[in-house]
Amino acid sequence: MRAIRTFLLALHHPGKGLMAWRGYDVDMNPSRAVYLGLRRAGIDFATSVPCVNLQELLGLVDTDPDIIHLPATREEEGVGICAGAWMGGRRPALLMQNSGLGNCINALASLDMLYGIPLLMIISHRGGRAESIIGQVPMGQLTVPLLEAMGISHLSPSPAEAEEAVAEAWNRAESGHCPVALLFDLDFWRSL
Amino acid sequence: MKRIEAIALAGLAAAEQDALLICNIGYPSRELFSVCDRPESFYMLGSMGMASSIGLGLALARPERRVMVLDGDGSLLMNLGSLASIAHHAPDNYLLVILDNCCYGSTGSQPSCTRLGTDLAAMARAAGVRRVRRAEDREQLAEALLEQGVVVAGVEAGNAHVPIISLSPQEILERFMRCALSAPQS
């Protein structure tokens, strides 16, 4: 029965079917891997500004009864909201596109880094390889240099590494009293 | 009403209500620190515009605690989206007090757009905030400080001669969080 199911899956979704045939968990898609990482990290508060690549993850976060999820109007606002949530005893994450990192710089520096407030940033990293929107390219190229200039630690895990990396990133943020970024590019979201 | 008088009133109201108080960057925090310092006050030393947002996150994280925010016209104008978020997501324990002196008081009193007629109370209403009040004197402000939602208080331009805050950022955060994470007193 399982063989028939995976055969049919292979027919309709070649990538997924092949993975199932090899014994991989077909439900472990990239969004779910990040979500499980958030769960493992004990993230119980999230703000977000949407990105098309985050839509599935945002749905998972939004329907999780253990996570307060607040859509923000701008990424910087999200940094402020998350800082307040931390002061109130929550473990906050900010979900956004890398274009929004530019909107956050001052709040990250003169709120989170100044006071020592931890923040987990889940960033969809547009503007890299296979990017079809030219407007994404400038911030795509500047994302890592900006993080480096600010001394913000960043990780770019594969889907297989994502769950553990998200949990590890939160540990770094909490123990270091600082923001930490996870970058997920187009290859990440398109992989299985 | 002078701004430091409004700040003293708000500080007193926060103490009486056992409220956590987020205070805006610049002279407002210095004035609050000098007239009514409490460990339950979080003094912003940077991130202009974020006061209302910090308070919103805190109010959601600690629904059993009263949370008050002292913001300014110039600061709120930098983060107007916050009014929309507050309208739809702020819990009942949240009060945003905008001290509107129609200028950027900490940087030399350059006029803000509220001097030219921008109406922050109308903007809050248009964003969907249901309870919006104006306070033009001490009596109206004292009454409004018992409310939830948004209060726009008209205050005079000008800063009091007060020293800078003698606490480090870490000290401000540490003592504030000790209070924020403890059970409410009443």
What is the gist of this entry?
Helices cover 54% and strands 16% of the residues of chain A.
Query: How many β-strand stretches of chain A?
Result: 6
Q: Give the distance, in angstroms, between the N- and C-terminal Cα atoms of chain A.
A: 23 Å
Question: Mean pLDDT of chain B, rounded to whole units?
Answer: 97
Number of domains of chain B: 1
- Please write the string of helix (H) and strand (E) elements of chain B: HEHEHEHHEEEHEHEH
Rg of chain B (C-alpha, Å):
15 Å
CATH architecture field of chain A: 3-Layer(aba) Sandwich
Uncertain parts of chain B: none
H/I helix tally of chain A: 9
- Say what the CATH topology of chain B is: Rossmann fold
The shape of chain B is: globular
CATH class of chain A: Alpha Beta
| Class from helix and strand fractions of chain B | alpha/beta
Shape of chain A: globular
Largest interface: A-B, 33 and 36 residues
What's the CATH superfamily of chain A, by name?
A: Thiamin diphosphate (ThDP)-binding fold, Pyr/PP domains
> Structural class per helix/strand content of chain A?
alpha/beta
Average pLDDT for all residues of chain A:
90
The residue fraction in helices of chain B comes out at 40-55%
Please describe what this structure looks like:
The complex is a heterodimer of chains A (192) and B (186). With 192 residues, chain A is an alpha/beta fold. Chain A has one domain (27-190): Thiamin diphosphate (ThDP)-binding fold, Pyr/PP domains (Rossmann fold, 3-Layer(aba) Sandwich), CATH 3.40.50. Helices cover 54% and strands 16% of the residues of chain A. Chain A has a 6-stranded parallel sheet with strand order 2-1-3-4-6-5, sandwiched between helices. Chain B has one domain (3-180): Rossmann fold, CATH 3.40.50. In chain B, 40% of the residues lie in helices and 18% in strands. Chain B has helices at residues 3-16, 27-35, 51-61, 73-77, 81-89, 120-127, 138-144, 169-180; strands spanning 20-23, 41-43, 67-72, 94-100, 103-104, 110-111, 132-135, 149-154. In chain B, strand 1 (20-23), helix 2 and strand 2 (41-43) form a beta-alpha-beta unit. The longest helix of chain B is centred in the N-terminal third of the chain and has 14 residues, at 3-16. The mean pLDDT of chain B is 97. The chains are: A alpha/beta (192), B alpha/beta (186). Chain A binds chain B through residues 45, 47, 68, 70-74, 76-90, 92, 106-107, 109-111, 114-117, and chain B through 22, 42, 44-62, 65, 79, 81-82, 84-85, 89, 169-170, 172-173, 176-177, 180-181.
